Amino acid sequence: MLAEPVFNFKLETPGKAAASFACGGEKVDFDLTNISNPLGDLLRGIASLIIEPAHLWGEDNSCHVEWYSDQCCYRWVISTDATQQARISITQTNAIFDDEESREMMSATCGFYVFCHAIVSELDLFVKQMGLLNYEQKWQRDEFPITYLLFLKKHLIDNNQWRATRHLNGTLSDELLLLLA
Predict the structure, then answer these.
(1) Pairing of strands 6-13, 73-80
(2) Residue 53 above 90 pLDDT?
(3) d(CA 9, CA 20)
(4) How far apart are CA 141 and CA 137, in angstroms?
(5) pTM assigned to the model
(6) Are 155 and 53 in contact (CB under 8 A)?
(7) Residues of the chain with pLDDT > 70: what percent?
(8) Which of 66, 46, 50 is nearest to 116 (CA)?
(9) Which of 59, 71, 135, 145 could form a disulfide with 40 if both were Cys (CB 3.0 to 4.6 A apart)?
(10) SS3 70
């Protein structure tokens, strides 16, 4: 049986976030800064695996995502093939431009849809509770990557892989009602 991944993300202080990803008994904690756009890069990378399925023409179907903290760089490599399995490798390096000094933090395999659901469901709840405007104000750099989130959520729904949650919508629902009023 493949591992069930768990993803968490929260903004702690302006320009700083904490995240974690656990899979197969391994867990990686991230302290992130707004030097990069971690959510946008991760969601864009996952979407690219769906939009451009390179494994169909015999190439490596993978995406590379870099997240930055004050002290280091975390590198995600997510790859899939025709078996619908996701292989996730996360490394950490203090030398951003040197791969030789990377330390492997995690190497795990899980179902691709299960992986997508773990990421998308956490961020779906996160943005519903925080709201798009509050995210941008607190993150102080990038807008929330709502387009990629909705694309991935639709992909999960279209493939009967979405499991609805019973959380209150919160701030995002209020923002949408304000726009429609």
Answers:
(1) unpaired
(2) no
(3) 7
(4) 8
(5) 0.88
(6) no
(7) 86
(8) 46
(9) 145
(10) coil
Q: For residue 127, give its domain range.
A: 6-180
Please state, in angstroms and as integers, the Cα–Cα distance from residue 171 to each residue in 6, 59, 93, 127, 154, following that order: 24, 42, 37, 8, 21
CB-CB contact of 144 with 125 (8 Å): no
Read off the amino acid at residue 26. E
Edge-to-edge order in the sheet of strand 16-23: 6-13, 16-23, 26-33
β-bridge pairing 85-93 and 73-80:
antiparallel
Residue 181 has pLDDT above 80, yes or no: no
Q: Which phi and psi (to 5°) does residue 10 adopt?
A: -150, 145
CA 118 vs. chain centroid, Å, equals: 9
Q: How far apart are CA 69 and CA 32, in angstroms?
A: 4
Q: Which tokens in the block code for residue 7?
A: 């993803």
What is the tally of structural domains in the chain?
Answer: 1
1 domain-assigned: no
- For residue 42, what are its two tokens? 């991760």
Identify the CATH number of the domain in which residue 98 sits: 3.30.2450
Cα(123)–Cα(143) distance, rounded to whole angstroms? Answer: 14
